[in-house]
Amino acid sequence: MEEYANTTPANNARSITVGVITHEKRFDCLAQFLELLSKPLTAYEKWSGQTTELIIVNNSGPEKSRELADILSKSNIATRHTVRQLDSPKNNIATGRNLAIEQSSHQILAFIDDDEIPTTQWLIELAKVMFSNQCAVVSGPVHPQFPAGTSTWLKSIDLHNSLGKLDGDDLRHTATANVLIDLDKIGVLRFDEKYGRSGGSDTEFFFRVTDNYERILWAEKAAISETIPPDRASFRYFRRRCISQGWNFRQIKMERGDITSLPMFKMRAVLVILLSLCVASILLIIRSNKAGNWLKRAFANIGFIIKPSNMLYE
């Protein structure tokens, strides 16, 4: 008997749209991803008695529209679920997310990335938390799966900030890699396209959600995994990622007026960098798997001070 058969649905379960922003760089893996995604959609429909819809946003420009349409037509997912393709007018992740929000047929919208692996229970676990608490957003963990040969300290890094949270925790902000959103509760809020190429549009968006006294809750059981390709399983990529994220976070905090003194902000970052590098060096010497997260903290704080020569997503 399927896993979802033993789970009682909430009385107020509703239909859900799942939004996926894709790019031509991921087209070769998209068919496999869609096959995996069909399982939690089917599970949710049987658990809730409601319908699901899948929106695939082409973020590669109109010239790639036909190629994506061919992939979808050859996939079995269109025979099992309602699937719609939307072509974004520009290669901007914030634009693609906004398009999914505006074109969603249902009040409840989930986002998942096209390089992730959902479990059968993924959508159910997100929905259980949302429908039980009537919150605006539910977010779940994303666990990286590194290729063979990746160093132990790199594999131990909490890339997606999934550690240290407890089921049901209130969050100040989150990412869109694994979220469920009540569109009625976010109202007219949209992702800021200014951060759509540099990164950080999700952090900035969810800051504004909680500014409006709406809740973001953590769903520990709604965990999914992400396959890390070999070219990203390196110290060089990790360092660039952390510094870029640090710089984006600084820009967001400055725009919000959360940094009252930039010199003091930078001074604190310098102290954190020095402390983090010292601790990381000791942990690396003793081969502790906690070294990676201290290095992550150090490089993120470097991003608080200087902008990298080439941003991660630009």
Counting DSSP E segments of at least 2 residues, the number of strands comes to 11
Helix content: 40-55%
CATH architecture level-2 label of the largest domain:
Alpha-Beta Complex
Which structural class fits the helix and strand makeup?
Answer: alpha/beta
The name of the CATH superfamily of the largest domain reads Spore Coat Polysaccharide Biosynthesis Protein SpsA, Chain A
Radius of gyration, in angstroms, nearest whole number: 20 Å
Question: Into which percentage range does the β-strand content fall?
Answer: 15-25%
Span of the ends, CA to CA: 47 Å
Number of discrete domains: 2
What is the CATH C-level name of the largest domain?
Alpha Beta
Task: Flag low-confidence runs.
Answer: 1-6
Overall shape: it is: globular
Major sheet strand order = 3-2-1-4-9-6-10-8
Average pLDDT for all residues: 93
Number of helices: 11
Any idea of the CATH topology of the largest domain? Spore Coat Polysaccharide Biosynthesis Protein SpsA, Chain A
Taken in chain order, the helices and strands follow as EHEHHEHEEHEEHEEHHEEHHH
Largest sheet: 8 strands, mixed
Describe the structure.
By secondary structure, this protein is of the alpha/beta class. It has two domains: 3-231, Spore Coat Polysaccharide Biosynthesis Protein SpsA, Chain A, CATH 3.90.550.10; 234-305. The chain has helices at 27-48, 65-74, 77-80, 93-103, 122-133, 152-155, 183-186, 201-211, 235-256, 262-285, 291-305; strands at residues 16-22, 52-58, 82-87, 108-112, 116-117, 137-139, 142-145, 170-171, 178-182, 216-218, 224-227. Helix 9 packs across helix 11 (291-305) and helix 10 packs antiparallel against helix 11. The model is unreliable at 1-6 (pLDDT under 50).
